[in-house]
Amino acid sequence: MAKHPSLRNAVNTLVRALAKAGLITLQQERFEYSASAMKRLFLNTVDRTCLINAVLLQGVFAEPRTVVKLFVDTAMRADHAVWAKTLLIDQQSKAGQGFIPSKLTDFLSILATDADLKTVTLPNPFAETLPQMGIGPAKSTSLMHLAAVQAAVLSKGDSMMAHYLNGDLDKAYHAAILIGTTSPALEQYRDLIIRDYCDSKAVKALLEDWR
Amino acid sequence: MISRYLYILFLLPSCALAKSSEPEPVKLVNACKELIAMYDRDGQENKLVSWFGSVSEGMQAGYCRGVIVEYRRHDDLRAAEHWSSHERCNQPDWFSQAQKVASYPATSASQHSVASLLEASCGR
């Protein structure tokens, strides 16, 4: 832990977010004989699975906020599982992060079910290093970020692409028209979605007109 | 060695040739199957269906509708001319006739002509 400050920071942030959401309970203890006034945090053993899963999920999705939501919001969890699958399985050779394909498939399929993430331990898809260590080629701190950079799908494009890949053209279109010009590649996806929406609307109107 | 490459040469255009070698009646049946499938998919899903990249399906669907609408228009003219002896089509509109055409197996359609296929779909 001490050797990888970026991992320590990432996990600390995550632990705080999880505790705040009431997913895990932390116990604070003050060392009476310690010279420093530093507090140490202790975890309950029952929360072990939850924390392991959270760290792995953070490795994939980066944002602690997203990780917390994955535990509680089943609809969002399903959305993200599909999206992660599309981005990671299709682009895995490009992502540059070493991971074990069979474990990743297991990881994603458990994520796609509604198995309780507080009791079922997810398989570790990362080969040797966690992305949070920040020592990958792109110094990215999550697998999704790495894949998203590759696919040029950044923050704002997230929901647009998630809806689109989910087959919800209406929602994807409404997300797309809100996106300004940020990156050329993202613009391409946005224009593609807008074009697909207009074309599909026209086909629908034509089918109705014919009947 | 050369025969090995010739074999590959023959394999390459197989995708593009597959459709054009079909006889006209088979094309019509398949086109109507595409048309009905488009309506089915549009009706089943309660959100907007993405037709991205469905140009070939769309063109086939349009072909089927065009053939049937024109056939029915011609049939109406014939009915006006020979009103006493003309047997009207038993399908009330182009859509039900397209459904009838789409119901024929594509394999047996090759044994008939387009005209006889359309006549049969009208119950004649």
List keywords for this structure.
heterodimer; A: 211 residues; mainly alpha; 2 domains; two-stranded antiparallel sheet; 9 helices; elongated; B: 124 residues
List the helices and strands and how they pair.
The complex is a heterodimer of chains A (211) and B (124).
Chain A lengths: L4 H16 L5 E5 L8 E5 L4 H14 L2 H9 L1 H22 L5 H12 L30 H9 L3 H11 L3 H8 L7 H27 L1
Antiparallel strand pairs in A: 1-2
Helix pairs in contact in A: 1-2, 1-3, 2-3, 3-4, 4-5, 4-6, 4-7, 7-8, 7-9, 8-9
Chain B lengths: L1 H10 L2 H7 L3 H21 L10 H27 L12 H10 L2 H4 L4 H8 L3
Helix pairs in contact in B: 3-4, 3-5, 4-5
* Category by helix and strand content of chain B: mainly alpha
- How do the helices and strands follow one another from N- to C-terminus of chain A? HEEHHHHHHHH
Number of distinct helices of chain B: 7
Largest sheet of chain B: none
Portion of residues within helices of chain A = 55-70%
Which consecutive residue ranges of chain A, at least 5 long each, have pLDDT under 50?
none
- Describe the global form of chain B: globular
Oligomer: heterodimer
Instruction: Please bin the fraction of helical residues of chain B.
Output: over 70%
* Cα end-to-end separation of chain A: 66 Å
* Strands of chain B, count: 0
Largest sheet of chain A: 2 strands, antiparallel
Number of domains of chain A: 2
Strand order of the largest sheet of chain A: 1-2
Total separate domains of chain B? 1
| Beta-strand residue percentage of chain B | under 5%
Principal-axis shape of chain A:
elongated
The secondary structure category of chain A is mainly alpha
Largest interface: A-B, 14 and 13 residues
